[in-house]
Amino acid sequence: MIDEKWIMSNPNEVTAALAKKGYEVDFTEYLEWKSKRNELLNHIEAVRAQRNSLSKEIGLYKREKRDTTELFAQIDGLKQSIEDDELELKEIEQKITSFMLALPNTPDEDIVAGDKEANVALFYNLEQPIFDFEIKDHVELATSLKLIDYERAAKISGRGTWIYSNLGARLEWALINFFIDQHIKDGYEFLMVPHILNFDSGLTAGQFPKFEEDVFWLTGEEPRKFMLPTAETALINVHRNEILSLEDLPRKYFGYTPCYRKEAGSYRSEERGTIRGYQFNKVEMVQFTTKDNSDAAFTELVNKAESLMKQLGLHYRVSKLAAADISFAMARTYDIEVWLPSIGIYKEVSSVSNSRTFQARRGKIRYRNENGEIEYCHTLNGSGLATSRLVPAILEQNQQKDGSVLIPDVLVPYMGGIKVLK
Fold this sequence. Notes:
The structure is a single chain. The chain is of the alpha+beta class. The protein folds into two domains: 26-102, Orthogonal Bundle (Helix Hairpins), CATH 1.10.287; 116-421, BirA Bifunctional Protein, domain 2, CATH 3.30.930. The protein has twelve helices and 18 strands. Strands 1-11-12-13-16-10-9-4 form an eight-stranded mixed β-sheet. It is elongated, with a radius of gyration of 28 Å. It starts with a helix and ends with a strand.
């Protein structure tokens, strides 16, 4: 959530920041609710003090054998007044909470307004591959090399799914193992997280309540549970409702999971094959850190995602996203986008994002600073990496004239020494 003190002190500034994301907000009602809330709290406290004072007189009345009927009537009246105020207070606090949960995170000051068209490419790795033969797309390559079975996946599950088979399954697993080894080498802690999460996990991550319909819910479960759309949703919640010590930070985690999302592929050429589906594999990195180390952590995550891409020898670019293209919970995002020669576009394989304190406020993820004061952590995440788009990129960028595909050198040990898919 956004810092409420900021809203109270400068609502116009917050309004302008949210406008960069294309989000219009009017804080008039919210400010009225906050004022009424404070008024009710003060009134409840005053009435409760009056009631306690009268309650102390009961013993005196009894010792003096005075009639306590009127005194008890006053006390009961004050009790009812408190209960009425507390009921109204609860309703107002629910309105405030619902309002705050609906507000997206504000973008960092250096983030420009606008949507995808305002994104800026910061860096390109290698040149676009040039072929002296008619190239095939990743679907044709995967099918001809018997790496992926789309038809049988559709038979047993439906459109938007696939089966990695034989060397295709080994290539997918090689990517995952390579990423895992790299993150362990860099000092990240490997967590195997649950795939079924509770509502509070989605709320803390910033996916709920706005995007409740974008996940798969388990029916018949109370309390409600859903299938995780990314390992980030679980990893961000590891320290929910905790106060960490300064010595505990930064905490660096990564996890491998399948991801389950209601976004099956379309008939557009750019989303064929494994480019978009409702189940795919991803290795995700997360950091919990302090305000002072937040920017350095972001740079580290970008460099880590880039390092994986460079080692794979793929042509890609790094793009700084404009405000309206940044997701609901994030303040800044850099995308690592890989080149797909067959359709001449870049597709995101990693999003590195900083939520600042947005997720930590939702999940009460805090730490005690050097002065013993409690502050909110900064939370960051980055894909490291999404394999369902890397496999198409590897097939297309590394294809040979005879229809075979060269395996990136760093993956050869994970493929049992196999260097070519043919």
